[in-house]
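User: Can you recover a sequence for this backbone? Please restate the input before giving your answer.

Assistant: Of course. Working from this structure:
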């Protein structure tokens, strides 16, 4: 199976990246739906994994547009060897990969696409998701995959640099993009905050892999993980596109915590491991 994009994948990405609007991803979802829909189960089957159908609308919803991004970034490269629909980039790149027996922290689990992949790879997963409606969809995803369900522990909390609570803004029409940091319009929901370090101490766990897409709060989360980075040196795959200085700030936090980290950047993500 391919682990890097072909020339045509790369060319397609460069030619379309400037025109990737919400409607672009609605079209991607229509294509994915035609390819992966299983009528008798009323769900999508991507490789060996099953994903819930989000709506029965004739025209893909805003949520399904974002869903297409998740599937294209996470499952297509990992299971189909295809980078055709990559946008923000996969969470596995070069030697930053999920291995059997890993303890994975899925920070910003949302509908559970990455959690499901990690469980399929043989990892024990802690799926951090602060938004109640997203957790409900996450449970639907796990229910469709009973053989993997026991490997995923849902944690109803967000990760930051301190414990407490915070108010999140949940965007209209989608569960993707809920943030306690970004200025945006939507309904409000209060959620519990913890830190990676505090959670590890309380639960007696040590992560081997940290994945994070938490809508602008990545730097706060990493500041709350300094002891874990020093002690356990987990592999890291983290988004860097929410703020212009994300990459520089995150690189500084990681290297200050553990200078042995090797860091690379690709697409809209940073990958790090010792």
């Amino acid at each position: 199976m391919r682990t890097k994009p072909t020339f045509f994948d790369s060319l397609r990405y460069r030619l379309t990246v400037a025109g990737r609007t919400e409607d672009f991803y609605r079209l991607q979802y229509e294509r994915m739906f035609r390819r992966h829909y299983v009528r008798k189960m009323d769900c999508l089957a991507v490789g060996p994994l099953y994903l819930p159908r989000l709506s029965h609308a004739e025209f893909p919803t805003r949520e399904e547009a974002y869903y297409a991004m998740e599937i294209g970034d996470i499952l297509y490269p990992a299971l189909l060897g295809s980078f055709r629909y990559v946008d923000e980039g996969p969470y596995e790149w070069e030697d930053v990969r999920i291995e059997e027996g890993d303890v994975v922290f899925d920070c910003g689990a949302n509908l559970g696409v990455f959690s499901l992949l990690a469980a399929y790879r043989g990892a024990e997963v802690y799926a951090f998701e602060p938004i109640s409606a997203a957790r409900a969809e996450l449970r639907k995803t796990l229910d469709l995959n009973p053989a993997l369900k026991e490997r995923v522990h849902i944690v109803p909390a967000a990760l930051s640099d301190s414990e407490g609570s915070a108010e999140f803004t949940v965007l209209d029409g989608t569960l993707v993009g809920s943030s306690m940091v970004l200025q945006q319009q939507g309904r409000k929901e209060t959620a519990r905050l913890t830190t990676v370090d505090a959670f590890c101490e309380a639960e007696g766990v040590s992560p081997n892999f940290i994945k994070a897409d938490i809508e602008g709060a990545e730097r706060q989360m990493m500041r709350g993980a300094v002891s874990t980075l020093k002690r356990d040196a987990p592999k890291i795959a983290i988004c860097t596109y929410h703020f212009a200085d994300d990459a520089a700030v995150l690189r500084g936090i990681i290297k200050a915590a553990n200078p042995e980290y090797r860091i690379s950047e690709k697409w809209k993500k940073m990958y790090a491991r010792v």
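That completes the design. The chain is about 35% helix and 25% strand.
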